[in-house]
Structure formats: C-alpha cells, structure tokens
C-alpha cells in the first residue's frame, strides 16, 4: 500500500520525469567512457570544419573555472552539486504533473549534475570531449551533462515567460 501511495505521488508530480535524469546520466557516462577508452588524453579528431571530438580533463567548474586551484575545488563543486541535486528533486516533487516544462528542465539539470559529480567523485575531474570552434577560436570543451544542464536552464527561462504566472504579471 505504501509503495502504491509513493508511486501515485511520483506520477502526480514532476518526479514522473526522473527517467529523463537517468537517461541523461546514462548517455553522459556512456559517451565519456567511450572517449576515455578510445582517445589518449588531449587527442583530437576533426569531425566537421567546426567540430572536433577531443579528450580533456576539467578539474574545475564550467569553462574550467578554478581548474588550477590545487584540489580543494573538487570537493567544493561536488558539495554544491549534491545540494543543487537535492533541491532539484524537491522542486520536481513540488511541481504538479501538468507543469511539464519546468519538470523536464529540472530533470535535465539533475541528470547533468549527477553525471558531472559522478566524474568528480570517481576520477577527480570531469571528462569533456565536445569541441566546437570558429577559425582558431575554440569554445571550452564540454560533455553531454553540460549540454543537458544548459538546455534545462534555457527551458526554465523559457518557462518563466510562458507560465500563467508570468502572463498574469504582464
């Protein structure tokens, strides 16, 4: 009976999108594993005139922020990701099932956060491998987890403009 109530609560909230978090995590880890097994560190393979696959390690946060800070940043960013993940789960639980866009956004960010925190805990760094560039300018390398976090953030901003509360405020 208790598990039926718990399942019912999950289906009536944003938690019904947790499968998306699991999918993001799995895709992220599978792609990172493929790169780690196939590429030497710093190896790069041109795919298109503006995109390479590359094997790099990010010891910092987004855009390698604090990557050369001496090691403490590993646990600092891990702690932040754990707190944010707990908040995302709570927000997903509080989000009514009808509000799909924010729940999907939370699920994407959660899956990405867990993917990167897994790397930090297991390896001490995050594996990045997507390298986009124009001419000689390269954006910082990133991974599937980073992509999911960015897409989730964009969806949350979009939802803030599309939600009934935002329309009422206008």
UniProtKB/TrEMBL annotation:
Transmembrane segments: 72-91, 103-127, 139-162
Pathway assigned in UniProt: Protein modification; lipoprotein biosynthesis (signal peptide cleavage)
InterPro entries (UniProt xref): Peptidase_A8
Top EC category: hydrolase
Function: This protein specifically catalyzes the removal of signal peptides from prolipoproteins.
Similarity comment: Belongs to the peptidase A8 family.
Protein name listed in UniProt: Lipoprotein signal peptidase
Organism: Agarivorans gilvus
Source lineage: Bacteria, Pseudomonadati, Pseudomonadota, Gammaproteobacteria, Alteromonadales
């Amino acid at each position: 009976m208790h598990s039926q109530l718990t399942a019912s609560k999950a289906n009536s909230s944003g938690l019904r999108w947790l499968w998306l978090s699991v999918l993001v995590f799995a895709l992220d880890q599978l792609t990172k594993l493929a790169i780690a097994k196939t590429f030497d560190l710093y190896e790069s393979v041109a795919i298109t005139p503006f995109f390479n696959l590359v094997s790099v390690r990010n010891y910092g946060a987004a855009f390698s922020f604090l990557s050369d800070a001496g090691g403490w940043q590993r646990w600092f960013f891990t702690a932040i990701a754990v707190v944010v993940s707990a908040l995302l789960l709570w927000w997903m639980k509080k989000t009514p099932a009808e509000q799909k866009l924010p729940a999907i956004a939370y699920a994407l960010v959660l899956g990405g956060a867990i993917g990167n925190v897994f790397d930090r805990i297991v390896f001490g760094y995050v594996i990045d491998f997507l390298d986009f560039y124009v001419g000689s300018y390269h954006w910082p390398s990133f991974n599937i987890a980073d992509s999911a976090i960015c897409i989730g953030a964009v969806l949350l901003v979009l939802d803030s403009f599309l939600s009934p509360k935002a329309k009422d405020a206008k």
